[in-house]
C-alpha cells in the first residue's frame, strides 16, 4: 500500500491542506498546531468511520464557530488498485470512491465505504498498519505485531517455512469453520444453547407430567381420609351439645351471686365514704384552730422586724440622688470630648481628600502631555508607508535587479571602436566623434547598429540569452521602481531610514501607551476628571460649612496629632464618666435591694393578717353550721353502719369462692368453643370433599398417563441429539486447540528473522555490538550493547523510543515485498541526542528504499540526517482545537 496524497478541508482548525507523499521517506514539517497530527487523525477517520457518524470525536472535527462540512481526501495505491477516497462529515455528509485501476469505477454513499473497506481488507494488513502507526506521544510504546497476518506470512518465508506444515491455511480455516459451528471464536461459548434448552424443556415437561399424575393419586388418598374424618366429627356433636348445656347452668348460678355481691359492695362504699367524710371534717376543724394560734404568734414577731428595713431604705435614697448628680456632670464632660474627636476626624478627612485632589490633578496633567506626544508619534507612523515586510520586498527587488544586471553583463557582448584617424559615426542614432587614438566601448545586451555615414553600416545582434537577460533586467528594474513607489520612498537607503524611524516611533508609542496606562491605573481620563470635580466640590463645601480655615490643622500630620490628643481626652472623660455612673448604679442597686426587702416584709405582713382573718372566719362558720357535739355523733353513727355492711359483704365473698367462678367460666367457655370448632371443622371437611370429588372427576378425562409417556419419549430423543452434538463440539474444539498450539509453536520460529531485521538496522544506530531479545509475543524484551544487557523497561526514554522506531522500520521492510503498508511516525525522537539523530536518520533512509515512510515533525532539524527524504512544509491556519 502506498499513500500518494492526503487533503483536508475545514478539518478542526485547518481551512485547507493538500500534501503529496513520495515512495520513500516524506518529512512533513510544520510548527506546533499547524495540523500535522490532524492529518493522521483524518486518515484514520476516513478508513474507520461512516460519513453519517454522530460520535463526539466526529462532531469535534467541525471548525469552531463555522457550520461547514469537514472533508478528507486520500489517493491510495494498494495491490492492483489505485483510487481516490473522500468523505465529508457533519455538514452535508457524503462519501465518494473513484477507482482508476485495475478498471474504472465510481461509487458513492454507503456502497463506497463498503467497497473501499473490502479493497483495504483484501490488499492491506490493517492490523499491521495500525500496530506500526506511531501517533503523537506514543513513540515509546512497543509495536504489537502478533495479529498481523501479512507479517506472519513474510516471517514464515524468511524463516524458510520452519514450521512442519501444520499451519496450512486451508486446514486451519476448515478447523476454524467447524469450531465456529459449535462455539463463538472469541469467548469459546457453545452455540448449541438452543438444543440444551430444548432438552431442559423436555425434562421439565416430563417432570411436570409425572407430578400431575402423582397429584391425582394424592387427591384420591386425601378424599378417602376426609370421608372418614367427616363421619367421626358428626358422631361427636351430640355429646358436645349436652356438655355445653350442663356448664351453662353452673355459669348462670355464679352470675346471679356476683350481681348480689356487686350491690352489697356498692352500699358498703357509700357508707365508708360517709364515715371518712365525718372523720375528715373533725380533723380539719382541729387543724384550723391550731393554725390560727400559730399565725397570731408569728404576726407579732413580723411587726417588730419591719422598722430597721424602713430606716435603711431612706438612707440609701439620699446617697443615690448625690451619685446621680456627679454622674450627670461627668457625662457632660464626655460629650464635649466626643464632639472634639468627631471634629478632628472631619478635618483629617478633608485634608486627605485635598491631597487626593492634588494627586489626581497631577495625573490629568501628565496624561494630557503623554496623549499629545502619542498624537505626534501616530502622525509620524501614518506618514511612513514602509514596514518590515515592505523593506524586505524592496531589498529583494534590489537584489534581484543586481543579480539581473550581473547576469546581463556576463552574457552581453562588448564592442570597441578605435579611431585610427578623426572619425564621425552614429551608435543607435547617437552621434559619436573620435579623434585619432580614442576608443568608444559599448556592452550589447539586445542589439546595436553602428553607422559610418557614406561608408558602411554595422549591425551587431548578441545571443538570444543576453537579450532575454536584458528583458529580465528591465523587469527587475520595473519591480524595484514599483516597490519604491508603493512604499513612498526613493531608494533602498531611504526605505531603511524610514523603516528605522517607524520602528522607533512604534517603540516610543508603545512606551507612551504603557505610561498612559500606568498613569490611569485602570481608570479613564474622564473618570479621573469626574473624581477631581467631585473632590473639589466636597472640599469647598466642607470649608464653607466649617466656617473658614480658623483652627484647621496645617496638614494631615498635624491633624492626626490633634486627633490623637482629642481621643486621649475622650478616653479620660469616658473613664471618669463610667466610674461615676458605676458608683450611681451600685448605690441604686443597694437601694433597690433594701426597698424590695421592705416591700416584701410589708406584703408578707398584710398577707399573713388576711390569712389569719380568713382562717378565723372559716372556723366560726363551721362551728355555727355544725356544733362540736353534732359532729362527734355523726362520726359514731357512720362507723356503726359500716361495720354491719362489711360483715354482710364478707359472707357473699365466702359463698362465691365456694363455687370457684373461674373454673366454672373456663369450663363453660371451653364447651362452647369446642362445639363451635367441631361444627366449623365439619363444614370445612365437607367443602374439601366436594372440591376433591370435582377434581378427581376432571382428572379422569385429562389423559395424564398418555402425556407422561409422550414426555418421556421427547426426553430420550432430545437427549440423544444433545449428546451427539456435544461429542462433535468437543472434537472440533480439540482439533482447533491443537492446531492453534502448533501454530503458536511455529510462530516462535519467526522471532529469528524479526530479530535479525531489527539488529541489522540497530547496528547502524548503536554499533556492531547491538543485539536484542524478542519474546514469543514478538515484543522487545531487552537490549544488549557492549556485552551489557538491560531489560527494555529499564532503558532510558530516548533508547526505548529509538528501539520502538527500529522495530517498526524492521517490520515495515519485512512486509514490503508483499505490498507493505506506509509507516507513519508522528512527533518522534524528541528524546534523542544529536549523534543518535544522525544514525537514526541513516536507518530511516535505509528503510525508505524498501517501504514508504511518512514523518511528521515540528522540528525540521531533527530529521536533517535522513538523506533521501523529500520535505513538505505546511503552515496551516488553525484554531486552538487543532493538533
Description of the molecule:
The protein is α+β, with helices and mostly antiparallel strands. The protein has helices spanning 36-48, 56-59, 109-123, 126-132, 149-158, 169-182, 193-305, 307-383, 388-411, 464-486, 492-520, 525-546, 556-625, 628-659, 661-699, 704-747, 751-766, 797-814, 834-848, and strands at residues 2-11, 14-20, 25-29, 70-78, 81-89, 94-101, 105-108, 413-418, 423-427, 430-434, 439-444, 448-452, 456-460, 771-774, 780-785, 788-791, 823-826, 853-857, 870-873. Strands 2-1-4-5-6-7 form a 6-stranded antiparallel β-sheet, with helices on one face. The chain is flat, with a radius of gyration of 62 Å. 20% of the residues are buried.
What is the number of E strands?
A: 19
Oligomer: single chain
Number of separate helices: 19
Q: State the separation between the terminal residues, measured CA to CA.
A: 26 Å
Major β-sheet, in short? 6 strands, antiparallel
* Principal-axis shape: flat
Helix content class: 55-70%
Sheet/helix structural class:
alpha+beta
Radius of gyration: 62 Å
Q: Biggest sheet, strands in spatial order?
A: 2-1-4-5-6-7
Amino acid at each position: 500500500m502506498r499513500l500518494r496524497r492526503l487533503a483536508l478541508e475545514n478539518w478542526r482548525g485547518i481551512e485547507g491542506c493538500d500534501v503529496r507523499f513520495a515512495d520513500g521517506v516524506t518529512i512533513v514539517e510544520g510548527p506546533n498546531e499547524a495540523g500535522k497530527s490532524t492529518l493522521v487523525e483524518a486518515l484514520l477517520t476516513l478508513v474507520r468511520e461512516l460519513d453519517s457518524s454522530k460520535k463526539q470525536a466526529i462532531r469535534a472535527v467541525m471548525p469552531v464557530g463555522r457550520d461547514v462540512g469537514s472533508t478528507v481526501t486520500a489517493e491510495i495505491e494498494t495491490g492492483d488498485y489505485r483510487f481516490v477516497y473522500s468523505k465529508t462529515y457533519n455538514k452535508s455528509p457524503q462519501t465518494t470512491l473513484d477507482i482508476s485501476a485495475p478498471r474504472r469505477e465510481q461509487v458513492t454513499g454507503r456502497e463506497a465505504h463498503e467497497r473501499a473497506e473490502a479493497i483495504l481488507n483484501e490488499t492491506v494488513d490493517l492490523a499491521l498498519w495500525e500496530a506500526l502507526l506511531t501517533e503523537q506521544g506514543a513513540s515509546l510504546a512497543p509495536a504489537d505485531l502478533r495479529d498481523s497476518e501479512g507479517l506472519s506470512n513474510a516471517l514464515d518465508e524468511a524463516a524458510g517455512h520452519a514450521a512442519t506444515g501444520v499451519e496450512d491455511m486451508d486446514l486451519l480455516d476448515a478447523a476454524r469453520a467447524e469450531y465456529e459451528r459449535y462455539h463463538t471464536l472469541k469467548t469459546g461459548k457453545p452455540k448449541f444453547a438452543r438444543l440444551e434448552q430444548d432438552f431442559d424443556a423436555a425434562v421439565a415437561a416430563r417432570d411436570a407430567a409425572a407430578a400431575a399424575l402423582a397429584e391425582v393419586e394424592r387427591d384420591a388418598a386425601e378424599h378417602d381420609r376426609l370421608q372418614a374424618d367427616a363421619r367421626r366429627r358428626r358422631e361427636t356433636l351430640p355429646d358436645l351439645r349436652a356438655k355445653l348445656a350442663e356448664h351453662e347452668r353452673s355459669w348462670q348460678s355464679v352470675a346471679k351471686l356476683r350481681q348480689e355481691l356487686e350491690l352489697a359492695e356498692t352500699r358498703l362504699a357509700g357508707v365508708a365514704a360517709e364515715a371518712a367524710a365525718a372523720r375528715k371534717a373533725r380533723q380539719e376543724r382541729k387543724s384550723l384552730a391550731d393554725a390560727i394560734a400559730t399565725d397570731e404568734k408569728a404576726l407579732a414577731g413580723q411587726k417588730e422586724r419591719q422598722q430597721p428595713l424602713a430606716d435603711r431604705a431612706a438612707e440609701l435614697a439620699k446617697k443615690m440622688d448625690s451619685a446621680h448628680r456627679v454622674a450627670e456632670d461627668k457625662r457632660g464632660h464626655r460629650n464635649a470630648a466626643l464632639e472634639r474627636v468627631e471634629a478632628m476626624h472631619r478635618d483629617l478627612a478633608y485634608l486627605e481628600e485635598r491631597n487626593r485632589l492634588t494627586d489626581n490633578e497631577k495625573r490629568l496633567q501628565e496624561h494630557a502631555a503623554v496623549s499629545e506626544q502619542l498624537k505626534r508619534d501616530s502622525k509620524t507612523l501614518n506618514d511612513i508607508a514602509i514596514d518590515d515586510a515592505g523593506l524586505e520586498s524592496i531589498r529583494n527587488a534590489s537584489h534581484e535587479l543586481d543579480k539581473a544586471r550581473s547576469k546581463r553583463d556576463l552574457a552581453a557582448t562588448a564592442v570597441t571602436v578605435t579611431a585610427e584617424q578623426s572619425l564621425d559615426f552614429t551608435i543607435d542614432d547617437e552621434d559619436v566623434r573620435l579623434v585619432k587614438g580614442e576608443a568608444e566601448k559599448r556592452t550589447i545586451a539586445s542589439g546595436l547598429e553602428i553607422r559610418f555615414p557614406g561608408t558602411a553600416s554595422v549591425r551587431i545582434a548578441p545571443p538570444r540569452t543576453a537579450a532575454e537577460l536584458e528583458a529580465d533586467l528591465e523587469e527587475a528594474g520595473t519591480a524595484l521602481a514599483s516597490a519604491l513607489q508603493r512604499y513612498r520612498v526613493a531608494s533602498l537607503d531611504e526605505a531603511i531610514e524610514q523603516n528605522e524611524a517607524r520602528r522607533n516611533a512604534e517603540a516610543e508609542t508603545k512606551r507612551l501607551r504603557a505610561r498612559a496606562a500606568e498613569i490611569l491605573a485602570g481608570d479613564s481620563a474622564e473618570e479621573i476628571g469626574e473624581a477631581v470635580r467631585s473632590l473639589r466640590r466636597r472640599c469647598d463645601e466642607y470649608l464653607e460649612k466649617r466656617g473658614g480655615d480658623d483652627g484647621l490643622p496645617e496638614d494631615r500630620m498635624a491633624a492626626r496629632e490633634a486627633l490623637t490628643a482629642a481621643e486621649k481626652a475622650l478616653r479620660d472623660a469616658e473613664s471618669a464618666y463610667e466610674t461615676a455612673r458605676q458608683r450611681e448604679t451600685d448605690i441604686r442597686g443597694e437601694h433597690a435591694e433594701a426597698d424590695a426587702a421592705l416591700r416584701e416584709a410589708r406584703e408578707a405582713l398584710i398577707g399573713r393578717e388576711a390569712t389569719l382573718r380568713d382562717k378565723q372566719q372559716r372556723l366560726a362558720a363551721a362551728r355555727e353550721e355544725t356544733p362540736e357535739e353534732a359532729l362527734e355523733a355523726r362520726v359514731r353513727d357512720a362507723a356503726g353502719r359500716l361495720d354491719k355492711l362489711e360483715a354482710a359483704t364478707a359472707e357473699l365473698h365466702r359463698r362465691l369462692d365456694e363455687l370457684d367462678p373461674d373454673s366454672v367460666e373456663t369450663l363453660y367457655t371451653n364447651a362452647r368453643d369446642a362445639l363451635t370448632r367441631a361444627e366449623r371443622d365439619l363444614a370445612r371437611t365437607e367443602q374439601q370433599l366436594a372440591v376433591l370429588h370435582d377434581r378427581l372427576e376432571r382428572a379422569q378425562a385429562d389423559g395424564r398417563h398418555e402425556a407422561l409417556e409422550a414426555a418421556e419419549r421427547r426426553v430420550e430423543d432430545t437427549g440423544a441429539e444433545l449428546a451427539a452434538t456435544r461429542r462433535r463440539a468437543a472434537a472440533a474444539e480439540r482439533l482447533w486447540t491443537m492446531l492453534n498450539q502448533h501454530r503458536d509453536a511455529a510462530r516462535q520460529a519467526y522471532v529469528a528473522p524479526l530479530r535479525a531485521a531489527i539488529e541489522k538496522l540497530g547496528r547502524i544506530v548503536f554499533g556492531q555490538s547491538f543485539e536484542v531479545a524478542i519474546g514469543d509475543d514478538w515484543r522487545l524484551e531487552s537490549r544488549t550493547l557492549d556485552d551489557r544487557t538491560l531489560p527494555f523497561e529499564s532503558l532510558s526514554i530516548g533508547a526505548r523510543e529509538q528501539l520502538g522506531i527500529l522495530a517498526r522500520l524492521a517490520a515495515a521492510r519485512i512486509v514490503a515485498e508483499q505490498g507493505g503498508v506506509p509507516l507513519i511516525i508522528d512527533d518522534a525522537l524528541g528524546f534523542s541526542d544529536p549523534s543518535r539523530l544522525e544514525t537514526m536518520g541513516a536507518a530511516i533512509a535505509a528503510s525508505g528504499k524498501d517501504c514508504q515512510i511518512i514523518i511528521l515533525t515540528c522540528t525540521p532539524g531533527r530529521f536533517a540526517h535522513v538523506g533521501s527524504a523529500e520535505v513538505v512544509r505546511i503552515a496551516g491556519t488553525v484554531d486552538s482545537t487543532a493538533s
